[in-house]
Every structure is written in structure tokens, then in C-alpha cells.
């Protein structure tokens, strides 16, 4: 275990710095957007640029890594991140910010893919769970720390944008100067959405809904806190509680789902999510402790549901298909993150900032209802001793599945296997 940690020290330091910049950027951009007087719908359009870039990167970046290697791609992506946030401070116009956010989304997704692919090569099956738990804590701590930088400056000037760019630029140094051996080229695999749906319809539909929910909150959570009258400090704290809930909630949810039908856990997560989101709809900054606690519950349902989908799909797949299934789920998740902010922005335009919580509650309700419908169809379950293990997934967004390194290609062939 100690040897595994030593071999990834520089990578973890780069990850921490990148996530500090990520947390600062993802809170700074919506706060500045609101200050510019842009409508919720326009801000959601800007956010959609990010999710489109994120999704495209999941397909394109593996091919780049195959051509030039992990370190060079990571350096190029960090450069894109730095350029996009600095350019945003120079050209404050929502039209060009859509492009800048698409570039940053492409870069962030690619960095996740490179980091997680790199980690997978450095760990063994015995240390994988522990190392990825540390990785989750690093990403969480970095993201929360970055959010708390916003109250220290003025979003209306360029200072925070420059600080963000500097943090991103410095993030490449630990990895670039490391003497550790570079990872081997990633493996090429195939993926097919039809194959995934045949294996597990509830996982395929759930991945889209998980993307809609988490993508909407990640893109518009800062808008919600700003328009609701929170100070930047209060907003950073609320966003931090959501992230903390997303990270810590995966532990009990994963353990429970490993011991029962995962669809029952999906239903429970959806129902609890509905109740918590509806409760936040009626809350205000005047009751901060109650609001933060409820936000923690929302986060603990919001992010783990994607990992539930991955585990459920892998339960019904052959071991050789794990990476293929997970890459397909990632594409569906990405499509959800593209659609979610647009619809969520429209809801906020119609109902005000609290419309976001109403929108999330509807998404949770659909997630629970579809899982319940699949249970009612009477499909066979998989015995606990025949299942794959639940794997916690780093928040706020992710690159590849912890099962391995991927480079995606299209495949429409279908091989019979256990279906839901």
C-alpha cells in the first residue's frame, strides 16, 4: 500500500491543485454571470457548453493519449484550462463564454481520464479501493478549497480569474517534473449502447437521469445560491455540503446495495432525494444549519446514484465487458449532463432560483419511478455472491471507470448474457 502511494504522490499533488482551480472556476463563473445580469436560461446555455465539451472529451481524449501519451496530453489539457479561464476574464460576453466553457469541459474530462487511467496502472487489485478512496478525498478537498477562494476576492474584476489560471498552470509541475515512470498506452475497447440496454435497462436510463441531476446542480448550483441571496461564503458552504454528502453517502449506499437488489436502493435514493429537494425548496438563508444539513442529504443521493447504475449494469455483464459497459454508461451520463442544465435553466427562469430544487425533485422522482417499474416487471435479481463490487466514484464529475483504462470505439454486436 505504501509503495502504491509513493508512486502516485506527484499525480495526487497535481490532482489536488487542479481541483482547487476547478472548484474556484465552477463557483466563480456562475457568480460573475449573475453579476453581469444574464438570465438563468443564458447561464444554463453557458453551462451546457461545459457539458458538451466534457462529453466530447470522453471520446476524443483516449485517442489523443494513444497517439502521444499521458503526460503530454495532461500538459496540453492543463494549458487549455488555463487559457480558457484567463480568456474569460478578458472577454466577458456570454456568446464567447459558451466556447470557453466548452474548452474547459473538454480539458477537465480529459484530465480525469488521464489521472484515473494513470492510477489504475499504479495500483493492484488489493490496493485499488484504498487508493481510489484517497483520490476521492483529494478531489473533494481540492474542490471545496477552491470554492472558498471566491469570498476572498471580487468576482467583478479579473483577480480571481488570474488566480484560477495560476493554480491551473502550477498543477502541471508535480507531474511534469516527476521521475516516476510514465504509464503505458491505454487499451482500445469497444462500446455499444444497445448492448448496455439489453444488459440493464434501468442502468442505461438511470445513467441519463444521473447525468441530468448532477450536471444541472454542478452547472447551476452557484446560480441558485447567488440568486437566492446567499453571501459568497454561505454559497461556498452549501456547495461544499452537497459535495461532502456525495462523497460520504457512497459508503453506506454501496454497502447496502451489495447486500440487496440494487433497484430497491435506487428507489430509496430517488424517494429521499425528492423529499430533501422539496425541503430545500421551502428553505432560505435565514436557517443556514438546517439548509446545510438538507443540502448534505441531497448530495448524498445526487452523486452515488451513478455508481449504483455502474454496479447494477456490471452485475449483469460478463467480466470481460466491464469496461465496455462503463464507457457506454459514461456516454449516456454525458448526454444527460448536456440536457440537464438547459431544462434546469428554463425552470429557474419560470419559477426563480427555487425552481432548480423543484426540477431536481422531479428528476429524483422519475429515477425512483423507473426503478420501481423495472422491479414490478418481475425481472430476476443477481445473488450477492455473483455480483461485482460497488465502486465509489469521485465527485463532482468523473472520467473513466475504476475498472480500467479505456479508449472508446463503436460496436453494435450483441452477445447473449444475463439480462435484467
UniProtKB/TrEMBL annotation:
<feature type="transmembrane region" description="Helical">
    <location>
        <begin position="7"/>
        <end position="29"/>
    </location>
</feature>
<feature type="domain" description="Major facilitator superfamily (MFS) profile">
    <location>
        <begin position="199"/>
        <end position="420"/>
    </location>
</feature>
<feature type="transmembrane region" description="Helical">
    <location>
        <begin position="41"/>
        <end position="61"/>
    </location>
</feature>
<dbReference type="InterPro" id="IPR011701">
    <property type="entry name" value="MFS"/>
</dbReference>
<dbReference type="Pfam" id="PF07690">
    <property type="entry name" value="MFS_1"/>
</dbReference>
<feature type="transmembrane region" description="Helical">
    <location>
        <begin position="201"/>
        <end position="224"/>
    </location>
</feature>
<feature type="transmembrane region" description="Helical">
    <location>
        <begin position="98"/>
        <end position="119"/>
    </location>
</feature>
<feature type="transmembrane region" description="Helical">
    <location>
        <begin position="290"/>
        <end position="310"/>
    </location>
</feature>
<feature type="transmembrane region" description="Helical">
    <location>
        <begin position="236"/>
        <end position="253"/>
    </location>
</feature>
<dbReference type="InterPro" id="IPR020846">
    <property type="entry name" value="MFS_dom"/>
</dbReference>
<dbReference type="GO" id="GO:0005886">
    <property type="term" value="C:plasma membrane"/>
</dbReference>
<dbReference type="InterPro" id="IPR036259">
    <property type="entry name" value="MFS_trans_sf"/>
</dbReference>
<protein>
    <submittedName>
        <fullName>MFS family permease</fullName>
    </submittedName>
</protein>
<feature type="transmembrane region" description="Helical">
    <location>
        <begin position="73"/>
        <end position="92"/>
    </location>
</feature>
<feature type="transmembrane region" description="Helical">
    <location>
        <begin position="322"/>
        <end position="344"/>
    </location>
</feature>
<keyword id="KW-0472">Membrane</keyword>
<feature type="transmembrane region" description="Helical">
    <location>
        <begin position="265"/>
        <end position="284"/>
    </location>
</feature>
<keyword id="KW-1133">Transmembrane helix</keyword>
<keyword id="KW-0812">Transmembrane</keyword>
<dbReference type="GO" id="GO:0022857">
    <property type="term" value="F:transmembrane transporter activity"/>
</dbReference>
<feature type="transmembrane region" description="Helical">
    <location>
        <begin position="356"/>
        <end position="373"/>
    </location>
</feature>
<dbReference type="InterPro" id="IPR047200">
    <property type="entry name" value="MFS_YcaD-like"/>
</dbReference>
<feature type="transmembrane region" description="Helical">
    <location>
        <begin position="131"/>
        <end position="150"/>
    </location>
</feature>
<feature type="transmembrane region" description="Helical">
    <location>
        <begin position="156"/>
        <end position="180"/>
    </location>
</feature>
Amino acid at each position: 500500500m505504501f509503495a502504491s502511494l509513493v508512486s502516485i504522490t506527484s499525480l495526487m499533488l497535481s490532482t489536488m491543485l487542479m481541483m482547487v482551480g476547478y472548484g474556484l472556476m465552477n463557483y466563480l463563473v456562475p457568480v460573475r454571470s449573475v453579476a453581469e445580469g444574464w438570465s438563468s436560461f443564458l447561464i444554463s446555455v453557458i453551462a451546457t457548453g461545459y457539458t458538451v465539451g466534457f462529453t466530447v472529451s470522453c471520446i476524443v481524449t483516449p485517442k489523443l493519449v494513444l497517439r502521444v501519451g499521458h503526460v503530454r496530453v495532461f500538459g496540453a489539457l492543463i494549458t487549455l484550462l488555463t487559457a480558457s479561464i484567463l480568456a474569460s476574464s478578458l472577454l466577458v460576453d456570454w456568446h464567447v463564454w459558451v466556447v470557453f466553457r466548452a474548452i474547459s469541459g473538454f480539458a477537465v474530462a480529459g484530465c480525469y481520464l488521464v489521472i484515473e487511467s494513470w492510477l489504475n496502472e499504479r495500483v493492484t487489485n488489493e490496493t485499488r479501493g484504498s487508493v481510489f478512496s484517497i483520490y476521492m478525498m483529494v478531489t473533494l478537498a481540492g474542490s471545496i478549497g477552491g470554492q472558498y477562494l471566491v469570498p476572498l476576492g471580487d468576482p467583478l474584476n479579473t483577480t480571481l480569474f488570474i488566480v484560477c489560471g495560476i493554480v491551473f498552470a502550477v498543477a502541471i509541475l508535480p507531474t511534469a517534473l516527476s521521475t516516476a515512470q510514465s504509464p503505458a498506452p491505454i487499451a482500445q475497447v469497444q462500446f455499444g449502447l444497445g448492448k448496455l440496454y439489453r444488459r440493464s435497462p434501468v442502468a442505461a436510463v438511470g445513467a441519463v437521469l444521473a447525468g441530468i441531476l448532477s450536471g444541472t446542480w454542478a452547472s447551476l448550483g452557484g446560480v441558485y445560491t447567488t440568486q437566492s441571496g446567499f453571501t459568497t461564503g454561505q454559497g461556498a458552504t452549501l456547495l461544499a455540503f452537497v459535495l461532502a454528502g456525495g462523497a460520504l453517502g457512497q459508503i453506506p449506499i454501496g454497502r447496502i446495495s451489495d447486500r440487496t437488489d440494487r433497484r430497491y436502493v435506487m428507489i430509496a435514493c430517488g424517494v429521499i432525494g425528492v423529499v430533501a429537494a422539496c425541503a430545500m425548496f421551502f428553505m432560505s438563508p435565514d436557517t443556514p444549519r438546517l439548509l446545510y444539513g438538507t443540502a448534505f442529504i441531497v448530495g448524498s443521493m445526487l452523486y452515488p446514484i451513478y455508481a449504483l447504475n455502474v454496479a447494477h449494469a456490471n452485475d449483469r455483464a460478463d467480466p470481460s465487458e466491464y469496461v465496455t459497459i462503463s464507457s457506454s454508461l459514461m456516454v449516456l451520463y454525458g448526454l444527460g449532463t448536456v440536457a440537464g442544465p438547459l431544462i434546469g435553466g428554463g425552470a429557474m427562469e419560470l419559477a426563480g432560483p427555487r425552481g432548480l430544487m423543484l426540477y431536481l425533485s422531479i428528476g429524483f422522482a422519475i429515477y425512483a419511478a423507473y426503478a420501481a417499474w423495472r422491479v414490478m416487471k418481475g425481472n430476476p435479481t443477481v445473488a450477492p455472491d455473483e455480483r461485482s463490487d460497488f465502486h465509489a466514484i469521485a465527485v463532482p464529475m468523473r472520467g473513466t471507470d475504476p475498472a480500467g483504462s479505456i479508449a472508446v470505439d463503436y460496436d453494435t454486436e450483441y452477445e447473449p448474457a444475463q439480462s435484467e
